[in-house]
Structures are given as structure tokens and as C-alpha cells.
Write a structure and sequence with these properties.
This protein is of the alpha/beta class and 237 residues long. It has a domain at 32-43 and 88-210 and 225-235: Rossmann fold (3-Layer(aba) Sandwich), CATH 3.40.50. The protein contains six helices and six strands, in the order ββαβαβαααβαβ. The protein has helices at 52-59, 109-124, 136-139, 141-145, 154-167, 188-210; strands at 19-24, 31-38, 94-100, 129-134, 174-176, 231-235. The chain has a six-stranded mixed β-sheet, with helices on both faces. Strand 3 (94-100), helix 2 (109-124) and strand 4 form a beta-alpha-beta unit. Helix 1 packs parallel to helix 2 (109-124). The radius of gyration is 18 Å and the shape is globular. The structure holds guanosine-5'-triphosphate and magnesium ion. The site of guanosine-5'-triphosphate (GTP) has 17 residues, from helix 3. Guanosine-5'-triphosphate binds at residues 7-10, 13-15, 41, 98, 134-135, 137-138, 178-179, 181, 237. It comes from Mugilogobius chulae.
Length: 237
């Protein structure tokens, strides 16, 4: 068990910078071909949370690692933290939206509009997108009692349909997960859901590579090292 991302509860997003995480199989071990890139959450207010233009900047590989987000001023070309000549390894190959299952029907019009704008932009760039529905334990008592009930829970089914329709994301791309929050040891049932989500991310990132045409490739795919493969943008919450 590790805790590399700052986590907790606050009125505003605790994640304020663009944070890529290399994943290793063991302490000090080699990285697996997946980099999870965390962003600030979307947030409700005007000039609050991640700006939709910054999502586009990130996807195109223009945001340097550890760049501090400014909700009111998305990154401009030439500004510090702007990577001008982004290559395939700097780009995002699969976008992952993170939504709290118990708050699906409480999402404000503003957040929905922001998410739809982002989704349109990401669609336009041809990047595959999936949605992680988190906190399924908090949302459904049946699931809290036994995580294996996730696929039998009418409530979770309903929430998955709701969020899929609201954002125009196919139901097959809505993945229920429970994060590690109270556990101090690894748990097989928690892992099964999380690893299924990671598997889907990897498959979708792969389809992004397969869709690259020679014209929009800025470097041959064969030059990618394992370490450079598979960047997934995880968030907005
Ligand atoms: N019960 C339960 N709690 C969760 C789950 N996922 C996250 N949490 C808790 O929710 C809180 C917020 O989680 P974070 O991972 O910080 O959420 P975030 O979206 O990254 O938040 P910001 O970085 O602040 O935007 C923490 O206290 C987590 O322990 C889950 O699946 N189940
Ligand atoms: Mg965070």
C-alpha cells in the first residue's frame, strides 16, 4: 500500500498541479508501461477548478509535468510550463473521468456543461474516454456489505445509466470502482475492479495508437519504449 497522490476532503480540489505517476510492480522495480496523469478537479464555481482549455492542452502534450493549474487562466503558448513541441509520448492516450457514484444526480448544470465541453474537445482530438464511477461502497449499502454485489445492484446500474446518458459516454465505458480508503492491506475484490478499470484504460490507449495515421504521427510508434507507452489522464472529479 502506498499513497503518492495527496488525498483527503476539502471544499476545493487538493490536487493543484499536473502530476504524472509512473507505476512500478514492486518497490524500486521497473516501471510498467502506464503513466497515470492526475489533474485538478472540475469544481462548480466560475473561474474555479480545471479549465476545459487546459484539458485540451494536456491531451495535446503541451503541459509540462508538475505545472500548477490556474483556474482563471489556462496555459497559453509561450508561457512557462508550456511544452511547444509535444511528441506522441507527451500526449494523453486515454482520458478517464472520475465521478462519485453517490453524487451523479447531484451534478450541477454547470459541471455537466463543463464536462460536455471537455468531452466534445477530447472527441475532436480522437482520444478514447472512459468514466470511473468511484465510491460505489458509499453509494449502495448492498455493495458496502459485499463488493461482489456491484454487478447485481440495481442502484449502481441506474447510476451508471444516468451518468452515461448525461455525458454521452457509452455504458460499456462506465466502470464502477471502489478506491482504497480505509483498508491497510490489499484486498482481492477491490483489486479486481481496479485492475479491470486499468485493463480497459490500456486497451483504449492501444486503440488510440492503432488509430494514428502516418500523417498525424510525429514519431514512429516502434520508437516508443515501454516506459513511454500508455499515458492516461485520470480525473476530473
Ligand atoms: N468510501 C470511499 N471513499 C473514497 C473512495 N474514493 C475516494 N474516497 C475518499 O474520498 C476522499 C477524496 O478522495 P481523493 O482521492 O482526494 O479525491 P480527488 O478527486 O483526487 O480530490 P481532489 O484532488 O481534491 O480534487 C478521500 O478521503 C478518499 O479516501 C471510494 O471509492 N470509497
Ligand atoms: Mg486528487
Amino acid at each position: 500500500m502506498t499513497s503518492r497522490a495527496i488525498t483527503g476532503t476539502a471544499g476545493k480540489s487538493l490536487t493543484v498541479q499536473f502530476s504524472p505517476y509512473n507505476i512500478t510492480t514492486a518497490k524500486g522495480g521497473p516501471p510498467v508501461p502506464l503513466i497515470l496523469c492526475d489533474t485538478m478537479g472540475l469544481e462548480e464555481g466560475t473561474d474555479a477548478g480545471l479549465h476545459s482549455n487546459d484539458v485540451a492542452n494536456i491531451c495535446r502534450g503541451h503541459v509540462e509535468d508538475h505545472h500548477l493549474f490556474s483556474p482563471s487562466a489556462p496555459l497559453q503558448e509561450g508561457a512557462p510550463g508550456y511544452r511547444k513541441d509535444a511528441t506522441l509520448k507527451d500526449k494523453i492516450h486515454c482520458v478517464v473521468y472520475v465521478v462519485d457514484a453517490s453524487r451523479v444526480s447531484l451534478m450541477s448544470q454547470k459541471i455537466l456543461d463543463k464536462l460536455r465541453t471537455i468531452r466534445r474537445k477530447v472527441n475532436h482530438m480522437g482520444v478514447p474516454q472512459i468514466l470511473l464511477m468511484t465510491k460505489i461502497d458509499e453509494a449502495c449499502p448492498l455493495v458496502e456489505k459485499d463488493l461482489k454485489n456491484v454487478y447485481h445492484s440495481d442502484y449502481i446500474q441506474k447510476k451508471a445509466r444516468e451518468v452515461s446518458e448525461a455525458l454521452g459516454i457509452p455504458l460499456s465505458c462506465v466502470v464502477p470502482v471502489k478506491n482504497y480508503c480505509t483498508e491497510t492491506q490489499l484486498n482481492l475484490e477491490v483489486d479486481v475492479l481496479l485492475l479491470s478499470a486499468v485493463e480497459l484504460m490500456m486497451n483504449y490507449a492501444e486503440s488510440f495508437f492503432e488509430n494514428q495515421t502516418p500523417e498525424n504521427l510525429d514519431e514512429p510508434l516502434s520508437l516508443r519504449t515501454d516506459q513511454e507507452a500508455g499515458r492516461s489522464l485520470v480525473h476530473p472529479d
